[in-house]
Amino acid sequence: MGIVNVTPDSFSDGGQFSLFQRACEHADKMVAHGASFIDIGGESTRPGAVNVSIDEELQRVIPLIEYIAKHHDVWISIDTSKPAVMKAAVNAGANFINDVRGLQEFGALEMAAELDVPVCIMHMQGQPSTMQISPEYSDVVADVHAFFKARIHACLNAGIKRENMILDPGFGFGKTLSHNYELLNRLDEFQVFDLPLLIGLSRKSMIGDLLHRGVSERLAGSLAGVLLAAQRGGDIFRVHDVCQTLDVLKVMDASEHYQHL
Ligand code: 9MG
């Protein structure tokens, strides 16, 4: 899953793809490199980010969704928590909802049920504006597990089909460095839900803070994280570097394939 943030303050590209033309070119490149999903976000969810209005978010994402739907055969994921944006995005051609708030905003559960498309339910402690101010857990894996259990129940009650659910532990969303690495280490414990796992750790602080690397120097660390997550049950990887990530996954697949010959 390649990331295209259509936000002026995008954390990884300094906003360089905020213009429609640049965003289209970026999406084209990711599809050419083999992405099977493009995740489009019009509101930054990085720590400390401020909310944007529905109109602003729609103006940022809808033209890009229409462009990708017209030019590419790829899953189009809309990164939003707002029911109105979910609806407009799906009407414009998106076919996957990526909600970092786990469908907890007012009306989001009902909207996801009505739209009947796959939805990623991500765990976050707090809200983006404050989530990195001393996050606390008694057992981070147990807490995320309990959250998944409760949200799956709420989704089923709202009429969302189980086969449309994808889970995401939400690396970096209200978690310290040690919480993130404990989650990564124990990722296989979420396989009990028998649902696909989406993993997003590309260029995040859990890489940069560990290695003391700036955002542009986190590729090797991000690839190591993808490899470990893939070995522990990750299915979909939300990344900035599609080409390099696919190389890593292909090498992993080949080693598993030849082991069984
Ligand atoms: C939008 N966004 C930023 N980080 C993310 C992550 O780790 N997972 C998902 N599903 N979305 C994310």
What does this structure look like?
This protein has helices spanning 20-32, 54-71, 83-92, 108-115, 140-158, 177-185, 205-211, 219-231, 242-259, and strands at 2-5, 37-41, 75-79, 96-99, 119-122, 165-168, 198-199, 236-237. With 261 residues, the protein is of the alpha/beta class. It contains nine helices and eight strands. It starts with a strand and ends with a helix. A six-stranded parallel sheet has the order 1-2-3-4-5-6, covered by helices on one side. A two-stranded parallel sheet has the order 7-8. The model has no long low-confidence stretch (mean pLDDT 93). The chain has a single domain (2-260), classed as TIM Barrel, CATH 3.20.20. 9-methylguanine (9MG) binds next to strand 5.
